[in-house]
Amino acid sequence: MRLSIKTLIHEAKPAARRRRLAERVSRNAFARLLDGTPPPVGEVTATTRGPAGQVAGALDKLVERGYAVVEDDRVVGMRGLTVRPTRNTLTMNGHELHTWCAYDLVGITAALAADATINTSCGHCDKPIEVDIRKGEPIGHEAVVGWLPCRTGGRVIDEFCPFAHLFCEEQHLTAWREGMGDIDGEVGDLRQLAEQGRRDWADVARKR
């Protein structure tokens, strides 16, 4: 049986509302994390526009899908940004922040059009990689490339982030891929990663 246009629109509306609510929750928590503060769950739900029960459910869904991390009743990670130390460091507006993966460093600063310095290490040889970002654009480091693994619908923090590295040169990316069994994904230079990041973080980069 073919569904009518009215039926399709009716069924799409709840999904659109849930998506917008998840975006508001993400922006709210993300903004606090940018200040280096892990907000209490109660604060996030109380200050996010929408029915309290639905807001809490949206946060739970973000955690379930690996877009958020809650510890001790605080949001300590959201959309790649975290207050927990990692190998990926972002210095911006006087705050030292961390991200789940190297791609997050580039993508977040690009979406925010921020001035920042990012630090990580080559996914193959562990050589330190430091890149200055000006108004969201990486400066120099033409040899550095990044790897964006394919997303299969699992938890982002588990299936994507552990493999989204930067590499000091493309030959090291090739060697790493061979060691990993040539996993599926895409290669991008820093400017390409920044452009992709502007799309991936466009919703949380907007004002609340």
Side by side, the strands of the main sheet go 1-2-3-5-4-6-7-8
The largest pleated sheet is described as: 8 strands, antiparallel
Q: Which series of helices and strands comes N to C? A: HHHEEEEEHEEEEHEHEHH
User: Unreliable segments (pLDDT under 50, ≥5 consecutive)?
Assistant: 5-12
Measured on Cα atoms, how large is the radius of gyration? 18 Å
GO molecular function, one term: alkylmercury lyase activity
Organism: Virgisporangium aurantiacum
Protein name: Alkylmercury lyase
Pfam families: MerB
Would you write up a description of this structure?
The chain is α+β, with helices and mostly antiparallel strands. Helices cover 43% and strands 23% of the residues. It contains 8 helices and 11 strands. It has helices at 5-34, 41-47, 52-64, 102-111, 156-159, 170-179, 190-200, 202-205; strands at residues 68-71, 74-78, 81-82, 89-92, 95-99, 116-121, 128-134, 137-138, 145-149, 166-167, 185-189. The strands form 2 sheets. It has an 8-stranded antiparallel beta sheet. Strands 10-9-11 form a 3-stranded antiparallel beta sheet. β7 (128-134) and β8 form a beta hairpin. α1 packs across α3. It is globular. The N and C termini lie far apart (42 Å). One of its GO terms (molecular function) is alkylmercury lyase activity. It comes from Virgisporangium aurantiacum. InterPro entries: MerB (IPR004927), MerB_lyase_sf (IPR053717). This is Alkylmercury lyase.
